C-alpha cells in the first residue's frame, strides 16, 4: 500500500461529503454530500432478508459512560429493524476500566460481540498480537454488506490490515482533530487582557487567575492525559528521520523514539525515557541529547503549579471547568459550541473563548501535523463472539444511511437533537444530557458527519483544513505496524509498571522526573524492556529492507 493511495482513502470517504469547507470533524460533523436521507422504511428495507432472522442479543463493550436515554435509542433501533435484523444490543459501558475488563473477559472466554480499542495509550496492537480479535476483511468491499462497502473504501481497509488481515474497523473523520484550550472570556476581560493566541499569553492569563481568583483552578486536566497526552509543548518540527513524541509507534508497550539514517534505510537506534546517556551518544545530533527529546516534560513541571493539587485523582476535568471551578481546560476544537452553552447556563455572566495551541495548525500552515494514515479509534470483534455475521449486519445497517447513522450518533431526532439544513445539527444542553453517545466507538465516519450550527467560522475553517492532505506530512515508517507477538509477555509486564508512573510525568507532578525515569527504566529492563527494544529495531529494519519508508 503506497502513501499516495492511502492518502486517497480519506479523500474517497469524504468525496461523498462534497463540501469539506463546512464539514466539522466532530460530533458536529455533517453528511455534506447526502441530498435527502432515505426514510426509515427505505433504509431498513434495503438490506431486508427474505425471511426474518432468529432473534439474537449482541454483547457490546464500550469505554465511556452510558447516556441517560441510551435504552430509548436502543428501543428505537429494535423497532426500526425488527423485521430485518431482529437484534437486541446489550451494551456495557466500562469507562476507564475497558482495557482491564476486556482482558478479563477474553481470559474467561466470555462472550463479547463488539468492543472498542484504540492507538496511543490504547491496546489495539497488543490485543491483536494476543489473538483477541476476529479477522473481518471478508465483510468489506462485499455486496452482501452494502453499507460497509459504501462507508469504507478499499484503500482505507488495506491501510489498516496487519499481515494481510483486518482485525479492526477504523472509525475516522480526519487524521487528526486539533487540540485547543478553552478559557473564561469574562475573566480575561476582567484582567484587562487581549484575546489569547499563544501559550505565552495564556500563561499570563493563568498567573492572573492565581492572584486575582485563587479560589479557581487555573487549568483543569485529566490525570492520565495531563498536558494533552504529550501534544502540548511538543516539538512542531516535521519528523523526517525520527518517530518520536507525539507520534510514537504504537503497540510496543513503551514509547520509543526510533532514529533512522538520513537516507531512511537503516535504524540507528531506539531510545526511551530513562535510558542512560550512553544510549544516546552515538545518535546524530540533536538526538544525541536526551533533553532534546524530552524537553516538554520540563515544561510540564513548570506548569504543574497551574493544576489542582490533587490532579493525580482527577479523571473528569471537563466537569471541573463546566461547573466554574476552573478557569481553563484543554480538549479539542469540535467541543467549543457545546461547552460554551454549558458555561453560559451554569455561571451567570460567564463566557468562553479558545485558541489552538499548535501554532502551525492555528495559522493553517502546510505540513502542520504528522500522520501515518491510520485512524486512532477502532471497533473490534473479539474471538469469543459467536455472532460475527449478525454483528457485522448491525454495523452494515449503521453505515448504510445518514438516518441510521444519526440514530446512534445523535439519538432520536426531535428528542435528542434538531436537524439544521442537510448537514447541520443543534441541541440544547438538556438534550445533550439525555443523550451524548461516544460515537467514535461505533458510528464515526466521514460520510455521515454533521456540523454544529453554533460552531464559529474559525473553528469550521480549522476543521476544513485538517480534512486536506495539505495539513499533513507523512511520518517516517508510516505503514509500519509492530507485531507484538514475539514479546507479548514482556509487554504485559512493562505496561502496568509504566502505567503507575505516567500520570506523574504527564502532569508534571514530579520535579525530579529524570531520576525517577532512570530508576523506572532499570526496573523495566528487568521486566523485558531491552527485548522489546531489540524486537522493534529488528522489525523496523526488516520493513526498511523491503522498501518501506
TrEMBL record:
Region (Disordered): 33-53
InterPro entries linked: Bact_solute-bd_prot1, DUF3502, SBP
Domain of life: Bacteria
Keywords for this protein: Signal
Domain DUF3502 residues, every copy: 476-544
Residues of the signal peptide: 1-23
Comp. bias intervals (Low complexity): 34-53
Protein name per its UniProtKB record: DUF3502 domain-containing protein
Organism of origin: Paenibacillus harenae
Amino acid at each position: 500500500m503506497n502513501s499516495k493511495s492511502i492518502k486517497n482513502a480519506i479523500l474517497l470517504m469524504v468525496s461523498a461529503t462534497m463540501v469539506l469547507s463546512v464539514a466539522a470533524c466532530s460530533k458536529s460533523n455533517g453528511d455534506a454530500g447526502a441530498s435527502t436521507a432515505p426514510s426509515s422504511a427505505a433504509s431498513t428495507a434495503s438490506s431486508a432478508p427474505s425471511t426474518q432472522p432468529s432473534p439474537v442479543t449482541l454483547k457490546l463493550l464500550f469505554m465511556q459512560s452510558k447516556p441517560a436515554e441510551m435504552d430509548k435509542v436502543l428501543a428505537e433501533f429494535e423497532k426500526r429493524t425488527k423485521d430485518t435484523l431482529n437484534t437486541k444490543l446489550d451494551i456495557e459501558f466500562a469507562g476507564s476500566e475497558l482495557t482491564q475488563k476486556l482482558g478479563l473477559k477474553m481470559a474467561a472466554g466470555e462472550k463479547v460481540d463488539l468492543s472498542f480499542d484504540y492507538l496511543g495509550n490504547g491496546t489495539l496492537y497488543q490485543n491483536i498480537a494476543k489473538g483477541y480479535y476476529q479477522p473481518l476483511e471478508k465483510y468489506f468491499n462485499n455486496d452482501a454488506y452494502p453499507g460497509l462497502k459504501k462507508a469504507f473504501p478499499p484503500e482505507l481497509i488495506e491501510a489498516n490490515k496487519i499481515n494481510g488481515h483486518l482485525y479492526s474497523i477504523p472509525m475516522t473523520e480526519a487524521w487528526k482533530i486539533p487540540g485547543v484550550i478553552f478559557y473564561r472570556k469574562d475573566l480575561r476581560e476582567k484582567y484587562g487582557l487581549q484575546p489569547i493566541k499563544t501559550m505565552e499569553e495564556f500563561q499570563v492569563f493563568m498567573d492572573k487567575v492565581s492572584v486575582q481568583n485563587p479560589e479557581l483552578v487555573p487549568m483543569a486536566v485529566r490525570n492520565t492525559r495531563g498536558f494533552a497526552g504529550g501534544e502540548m509543548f511538543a516539538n512542531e518540527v516535521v519528523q523526517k528521520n525520527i518517530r518520536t513524541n507525539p507520534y510514537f509507534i504504537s503497540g510496543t508497550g513503551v514509547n520509543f523514539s526510533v532514529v533512522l539514517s538520513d537516507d531512511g534505510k537503516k535504524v540507528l537506534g531506539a531510545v526511551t525515557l530513562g535510558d542512560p546517556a550512553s544510549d544516546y551518544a552515538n545518535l546524530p545530533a540533536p538526538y544525541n541529547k536526551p533533553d532534546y527529546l524530552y524537553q516538554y516534560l520540563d515544561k510540564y513541571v513548570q506548569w504543574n503549579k497551574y493544576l489542582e493539587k490533587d490532579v493525580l485523582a482527577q479523571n473528569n476535568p471537563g466537569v471541573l471547568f463546566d461547573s466554574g471551578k476552573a478557569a481553563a481546560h484543554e480538549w479539542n476544537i469540535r467541543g467549543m459550541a457545546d461547552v460554551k452553552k454549558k458555561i453560559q447556563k451554569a455561571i451567570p455572566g460567564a463566557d468562553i473563548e479558545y485558541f489552538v495551541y499548535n501554532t502551525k495548525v492555528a495559522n493553517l500552515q502546510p505540513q502542520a501535523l504528522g500522520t501515518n494514515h491510520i485512524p486512532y479509534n477502532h471497533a473490534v470483534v473479539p474471538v469469543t463472539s459467536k455472532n460475527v455475521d449478525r454483528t457485522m449486519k448491525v454495523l452494515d445497517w449503521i453505515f448504510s444511511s445518514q438516518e441510521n447513522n444519526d440514530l446512534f450518533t445523535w439519538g432520536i431526532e426531535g428528542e435528542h437533537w434538531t436537524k439544521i439544513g442537510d448537514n447541520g445539527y443543534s441541541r440544547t444542553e438538556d438534550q445533550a444530557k439525555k443523550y451524548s453517545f461516544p460515537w467514535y466507538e461505533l458510528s464515526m465516519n466521514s460520510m455521515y458527519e454533521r456540523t454544529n450550527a453554533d460552531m464559529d467560522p474559525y473553528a469550521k475553517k480549522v476543521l476544513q483544513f485538517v480534512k486536506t492532505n495539505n495539513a499533513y506530512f507523512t511520518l517516517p515508517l508510516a505503514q509500519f505496524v509492530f507485531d507484538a507477538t514475539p514479546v507479548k509477555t514482556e509487554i504485559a509486564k512493562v505496561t502496568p509498571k509504566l502505567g503507575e508512573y505516567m500520570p506523574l510525568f504527564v502532569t508534571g507532578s514530579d520535579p525530579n522526573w529524570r531520576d525517577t525515569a532512570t530508576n523506572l527504566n532499570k526496573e523495566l529492563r528487568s521486566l523485558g524492556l531491552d527485548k522489546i527494544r531489540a524486537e522493534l529495531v529488528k522489525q523496523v529494519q526488516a520493513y526498511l529492507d523491503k522498501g518501506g519508508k
